[in-house]
Each structure stands twice: as structure tokens, then as C-alpha cells.
Design brief:
This protein is an alpha+beta fold. It folds into 4 domains: 8-162, Beta-Lactamase; 259-356, 2-Layer Sandwich (Beta-Lactamase); 362-421; 442-594, Histidine kinase-like ATPase, C-terminal domain (Heat Shock Protein 90, 2-Layer Sandwich), CATH 3.30.565.10. 52% of the residues lie in helices and 21% in strands. It has 14 helices and 17 strands. The protein has a 5-stranded antiparallel sheet with strand order 2-1-5-4-3. Helix 12 runs antiparallel to helix 14. The longest helix has 55 residues, at 7-61.
Amino acid sequence: MNRHSLIWYLYPPFLLLILAGFLLIAGYSTRTFRSFHESATRDDLLVRARLLRHELTPILLAADWSGVDRLCKDLKEHASMRMTVILPGGQVAGDSERDPAGMDLHADRTEFIDALKHPPGSSIRFSDTLRESMMYVAIPVEVDGRLIAVVRTAMPLTRIAMEIRRMWWRIINASVVLMLLAAWICFVIARRMVHPLTEMDRVAQQFAAGRLDLRIPLPRAREPARLADTLNRMAQRLSEELATIRRQKDEQEALFTRMVEGILVVDRDEQVVDFNEAAARFLGFDAERAPGRSVRELIRVSGLHHFVSETVAGREFGEIDLVVPQPGNGERYLQVHGSALRNDDGSCRGGMFVFHDVTRLRRLETLRRDLVANVSHELKTPITSITGAAEALVDGPGSKSGETRHFLEMILRHAKRLNAMVDDLLSLSRIEHDTERREIPLEILPVAEPVEAAIEACQPLAGKRQITLSRSIEPALLARINPTLLEQAVANLIDNALKYSEAGSTVQVSLDHSGTDIRITVADQGCGIEPSHLPRLFERFYRVDPARSRQQGGTGLGLAIVKHIALAHGGRVEAASTSGKGSTFTLIIPAAGNAA
């Protein structure tokens, strides 16, 4: 779209306004001039008519009509006007231009009628006799109150038209000069009005080009000066804001580049938007080819693809563990945290993922686990031998003093405790190893079966402690499970509840579902757990009350085993407790249709 300069919006209206003013003045002047000349001509004709009446009265009284006509024609030589004498009946008695005998009756002439009714009479009309526009003035001639004639003087309007035409030429000449002068003045004024805006536009374009150090000169007029000052302050503010943004961007880029963690940002179409060197190194993709490429095309780690899709679909936060193959048959272990990126309206515009390299920690964990497994395995044989020997001595023949029996029973008790601890360590190590390598066999089976088996296995202990073991089971729930491990986990939870419950109380075991999850809940009415202990409750060898735990014969590994069995099933375990009112442990696993 073509846009004109502001001066072309200001200049023509000024000129049109001045031209309209000149036209109004010219029209008013012409009207005034015409009115003035007509009035002057009318007065002149009236004076002449009165003079003519004075000279004609004696001749009219003598009824000398030829004398009347002769006088009119004689006076024409000395006065540039037409003179007519009209009798009361409308007959023309004398005329300075024509022969009265050949002229029509003038009784219907406007000026004649007005002269009789309201003298003097006057009119401006076209003369049929002279074939031109004329001004007429008529006055009555009376003697002793008797009308004897009407004297009419007339003058053509040609002179007035010539005077008006001459005046128009003067007005046009003056108007042309004044219009040229006004046009120049208007142009100068318009230029002065537009110049500050032109200067603002020029500097504003420099602002848009990044030259925020420039400033607009302040005009003299208040309004443009205020606008220029506002633009200057805006440029100063933008310059400061841009400097801050550049500094923050440089700091963020430096931090982003030097971070140990890998960062990957994708849009809602799962295409790479940004990343750092650590992410490219961890995931093994070419940094130069990455921008704009799809994650599925660029990164050959299938476990990441599903996680990215879930995050971009709107999941706020998530976490997964990845194993990325490395050249030379090596593996890199990554812990990935993902979160959705949202627009102001809440819609998802992509996702950001943080990769933590936990390879060294995993290797140390593997070494620790292998060490524990190896040590436990090596301890298993001597502990078994010690247990067997102690049992043989306690139950063998021969008399033993009370002190000897006491020490033998102590040896046997601690040997059994060590044996149970070694068994739990070996079990925990095996579960961790198989989970990491995805070697735990899972089948879609009814969850109620291992839960019922665990309850039945714990019934003797419940009866011994005089505790009621109640159940609430939904039989039709299916999940991908390892029934042996799941039974072990539930049995550990029930065993733990029985150990910390008083005689006469109830331990409630429930199996139900909530949404896509299956929940196995064990609730007791024991002494409860302080809230400060809950976060560490599933750590190895962590004990809320070490003395009571040893007295009950616990190894400190039961809840840790439950946690790792839950993880092996793609689930989790939760604990809730109120001191003095009991505890509730919930093992949560995905239902069959949602199990990974």
C-alpha cells in the first residue's frame, strides 16, 4: 500500500481552506459592489427623473405631446439615459429612444404600477424595446393632487456589468498573488509541522536497526517535544533492558555449555530446539545435524522416545532411567528428568529434559552389590556350620552347666540371625541384579493368589501373637507380576505389622484398585511411626527402634526388599503413620492394561 507524506495530508486542506475563503470574499464583494452600484444608479435616475418632471410639468399642462417627445429626445444628447413620459392610461407621450406612436401601452410595467401606488417605482428587467437589461425609476407628475403623467428614467445595466467584470479581474489578480503567497506560507508551516515527525521517524528507524544510542532532538512545540522525549526515554530503557538480556543470555549460555548435566529441549512436534554439549555426548548424536531434527530420528534410544512423547503430551514432571549403548560394548547409565513447557494460556509447547550421568554411581552400586553378594555367599557356609554346631551342642547328650547352655543358646540365636540377614542380603542383591537386567519374569496373573498365599503363610505367627489377621480382597484384579516375589513382599509387610502390633489388635490386609493402579494395603494398630522416620523407612538396615527390632529378630532389610520388589513390578511402596495409632503400608503396581 502506497502511503503519502504527512505534508500532503496537511498542505492541500490548507490551500482549499484559503481558496474557499477567497471565493467567499469575492462573492460577497461582488454582491456588495452590485448592490452599491444599483443603489447609486437608482438614486441617480431618481434625481434625473425629478429634474425632468420639473421641466415637463408646464408642457404636460399645455397637452403639448409633441413638445414632450421633443424635450425627451433633446435631453438625450446631454444625458446618457433613456427618458419616457407615460400618461395615466399607460400611453407613451414621449420617449428618448423610440417614436411614442409605435410603442405599446406601458400600464402593465412594474415601475409604472409602483409609481402610482408607492412612489417612486423602480424595477430591473429586460427591455423588449431596447432588447437589453435596464434599470427603471418612475415618479408621478401631479398638479393640485391630480395625476397628469408618470416620468420614467432608465439606464442599461451594461455599465454595472462592466464595472463588476473589471472588479472581478482585480480580485482574480489579487487572489492569484495572495494564493501564491498563501501557498508558500502554508507549505512552510506544513514543513515546520512535519519536520519534527520526519526527524522522529528517521531516528525511530535507527532505533529499529539497533542504534539505541541515538537521541531525537527536542522540537520547540510542546506536544512533539513530549513525544520525542518519550521515545528517547523508551530507547534508553530498551538499551538498558537489552544489555541486561545480553548479559543474562551470555551467562546462561556459559552455564548451559559448561553444565555437567545434559540438557535437551524439544517442541510439541518432538523436534530438537536446543541442547548442550553434554546431551550430545551422552546420547551420541551429531550436534551439527541436531537442530530441527526429530528425536526419534536423531536419538536411537527407544526408552527415551516414549518418555518424550508423554512429556510433550502435557505431563508436568517425570523421571526414567536409561541405558545408552556406547562404542566398544560399553554402557552409559542416565537418569532423565522431564517436564512440559507451557504457553501463557496453559497449552503445551514442548518439553525440557535433564540427563544425569550416573554411570559411575551405577558401577559403584554394582561393585557394592557384588561385594555384598559375594561376602554374603562366602559367609553363608560358615554361618550354616556354626548354626549346625551350636544346635548340636545345645541338643546333644551330656550335662552342661547353666552358664555353658546360656552361651551356646546365645551363639545359636545370633548365628540364626546372621543366617537370616545373609539370606535377605542375597535375596535383595538378586532382586536388584535381575531388575536392572530386566531378567525378572512377569506374567499376567490374578493378584489375589500371592496375596492370599502371604496371608496364609503369616497366619501361624498371627495366632501365636493373638492378633486377628483380616482381609478384604477383590479377586478379579490382574497385573503383570512375579507371584513368588509379590508373595514375599506382602509377607514381609504382614510380618512387619505383626511384630509391632499388640495382642488383641487387628492387622487388615486389603487388595483393591484405584484408577489404573492396583493397591495392596497392610494396616496395623501398633505404636505407629514418628513422621521424621518415614522418608528413610525403606533404606537398608534403617530401624526406627533398633533395640526392639533386634529383640523381634528383624534383619533391617524387609522393607528394603519390599521396595525393590515394587520397583521390579514398575510400582512403588508408600507408608503413612500416626504415632500411637498404627501404620499403613501400601504396595502399588500397575494393572495389566497399564503395566510396562
